[in-house]
Write a structure and sequence with these properties.
Layout: H1 24-41, H2 53-70, H3 75-100, H4 112-120, H5 124-127, H6 141-160, H7 165-187, H8 191-196, H9 198-201, H10 203-213, H11 223-240, H12 245-270, H13 275-280, H14 283-290, H15 292-305, H16 312-332, H17 334-338
Length: about 350
């Protein structure tokens, strides 16, 4: 089976660095994802389900990362690139958090030093369900899920590339359904166990990976219609599938998988020329997409630090503006030191499907 790379970007959506041959419409998708998350963490009622922005990130990340692996990048180079994309910005955030930790009242963040340990060891996805207390770096659970995926997935792809297509499809389906089943099982222990852990919330990464592994899944003869339907589903989940106790069961049991499938459909739609693709290439959205990783990192402690103190609108303004400024500084200083153009590109343009 012919397997050509499915994207011109070689980065995770939570650790992005721009390339000259990047896909600007995918920047727009990153922008949508991070704006949903920021609005959700700011406490806006209309965005109570905006945490599904993380699911958009996961699907896009699985798609792009698997595209790199299919093109035969070396294992050491792969891990080095992932570290350069993710670690510098995270270290800067943790340094700022550590400097502020002695002055943080326990009523604001209950365990700043444990927060730092969880962030730096990429273990917050398993730490959050087991530790009580308000966290200022709890949002790094998604980075933990991604990093654990990066550690395992190259070996899975290496195995599946040597197997018949039908067998690979069965393995992908089995992994995705197992994750969905584990999410339902873990929900019996509590919402946090079902929502945050790698083995219950890596389904979007697997689904996005399937898009890259099976080029036929990228065929979309009606990109405008399917893309708008996907956006409608994402919008409905954002409004209704929130974090209130009455909705948590719905979001965990069916909302996550629904968001993942909608995100996958949206990715396939954006890869095809259409007015929707043009809309997602809007320049301001591209700028936000470029900075989305940093915005994701920096907005959360700002929004959570103002929880119970400031109005939702103030929290949104402070976290979005403050997060964007911090992200821009990080992107053009610390991250710029580690960004470099690879000596030779192993990335290819996808064939028309």
């Amino acid at each position: 089976m012919a397997r050509q790379l499915v994207a011109r970007q070689h980065s995770s959506c939570l650790g992005w660095a721009m390339k000259p041959d990047h896909r600007p419409e995918l920047d727009g998708l990153r922008a949508l994802a991070v704006l949903l998350v920021v609005a959700h963490h700011s406490g806006l009622v209309s965005f109570r389900g905006g945490a599904i922005g993380v699911d958009l990130f996961f699907v896009l990340s699985g798609y792009l990362i698997t595209g790199i692996l299919i093109n035969g990048i070396g294992l050491a180079d792969f891990y080095a690139r992932r570290a350069r994309r993710i670690v510098p910005a995270l270290l800067l955030l943790c340094a700022a958090y550590a400097a502020a930790a002695p002055f943080i009242p326990p009523a604001v963040f209950a365990r700043p030093w444990m927060d730092l340990a969880g962030a730096l060891t990429f273990s917050h996805d398993y730490l959050i369900p087991r530790v009580d207390g308000f966290s200022g770096l709890g949002h790094t659970w998604s980075l933990a899920v991604e990093m654990q995926f990066y550690l395992l997935w190259p070996f899975v792809i290496g195995y599946l590339r040597r197997r018949p297509t039908a067998m690979a499809a069965i393995v992908f389906a089995a992994i995705y359904l197992t994750i969905a089943a584990l999410r339902i099982i873990e929900f019996q222990r509590g919402w946090e166990f079902a929502n945050f852990q790698f083995h219950t919330h890596a389904g979007g990464l697997v689904l996005g990976s399937a898009l890259a592994f099976f080029p036929q899944l990228q065929r979309n003869s009606a990109p405008m219609t399917s893309g708008l339907c996907a956006l409608t589903v994402i919008g409905a989940l954002t409004v209704f599938a929130g974090d209130t106790s009455s909705w948590r069961a719905h979001r965990v049991l069916w909302g996550t998988s629904t968001a993942e499938i909608a995100a996958a459909v949206l990715v396939t739609a954006l890869l095809q020329p259409s007015p929707l693709q043009t809309a997602f290439r809007w320049k301001p959205a591209q700028v936000i997409g470029v900075l989305s990783y940093g915005i994701y990192l920096w907005h959360f402690p700002i929004a959570m630090g103002l929880r119970g103190i400031a109005h939702h609108g103030v929290r949104l303004l402070a976290s979005s503006v403050g997060g964007t400024i911090a992200a821009a500084i990080s992107y053009h200083t610390v991250e710029a030191v580690f960004r470099r153009r690879p000596r030779s590109s192993v990335l290819a343009t996808p064939a028309a499907a």
